[in-house]
Amino acid sequence: MAGILVVAAVTLFFVTSLFGRIWCGYACFQTVWTDLFIACEKIFQGDRNQRILLDRKNSFEKYWRKAATHISWIIISLITGYGFVMYFNDAITLPQNINFGVLGWIIGIAAATYVMAGFAREHVCTYMCPYSRFQSAMFDNNTLIISYDQKRGEPRGKWDGDSSKKVGHCIDCKQCVVVCPTGIDIRNGLQMECIACGLCIDACDNVMKKIGLPTGLIRYDTMAHLLDPKPEKKFKILKPRTFFYGAILTAVCAIMLKSLIFKSKLEISAIPDRNPLYVKLSDGSIRNGYTVRVINKTHQKKVFELSVISPQEAILKGSELIEVQANEVKTVKVFVIFPQNFVEKNEEGRGLVEFLIKNEAESKKVEAVFISK
Question: What is the pLDDT of residue 111?
Fold first, then answer.
């Protein structure tokens, strides 16, 4: 799990250094679920202008459309909560095994989805998500970001088709601001709130087509190419950061692959009893109790033989043959007796006892503490 998290983090940094915040704009759960909720809103209430007009009404149409919207949100939220819970339970038998704990998780996740995607929306990106705060550390002049071409767009003014006028291509229609989910003006430069969703690009391109001007006034571009529009300044994937992050990903993946290939299929632990620490028997010998836990990581049932190999004087009492089912953890209680002559020689009153568990294919050793005084 730790390796997967490291790979995910490095991959996120890698993609961000190349393409900016495309994770936020296209793949983040908050963005995806918000878009899904907005789609439902459009189905029942229409586009933005229609929703504004609907809010001004006081009619049955308004209330049934609002109710249908929220019902669809609740259904999506419950499906989300149920899907999340299925990751940690048997999906096939879950409907028959729902208890108050599972139901609580479903309702809790559904409520969070309903609030975050239905009401909080872009405020999560602006005020709650820490990613926007440190994204600038991963950007450079060759990172692909949403940019406004000031050289082409300024000065802003009404465009009437007369190219002799000293007016830029930006007609100051503010459509880029209207469609932005976080409400920023991309013409003021890259800002922390920008999630790189590209809605401002689509809105600007539509306006440019209507007035007969080239598209791309707002576009994905690098800062280096924007300031100096030469072919060699265009976005390039192969750059020093690419090789740096690629080397880190390769190293982490290699370490994970090695750990998976050489992963032990047998684990054993021996935990000494704490109360009592030891028991003195009638013949003067000392007995220590241990809880031995055996983990079988294979898909077949295994039978293991448990023994004590050190110290040689120690005598094992308990389950010497341990049967462990496939993918099971088996716990057994055993006792180790130390003869009186061994106890008398052991002046410290403590030491190490070594257990060996084995079968015809594999073996494993584990040490535990014994106490005699």
Answer: 96
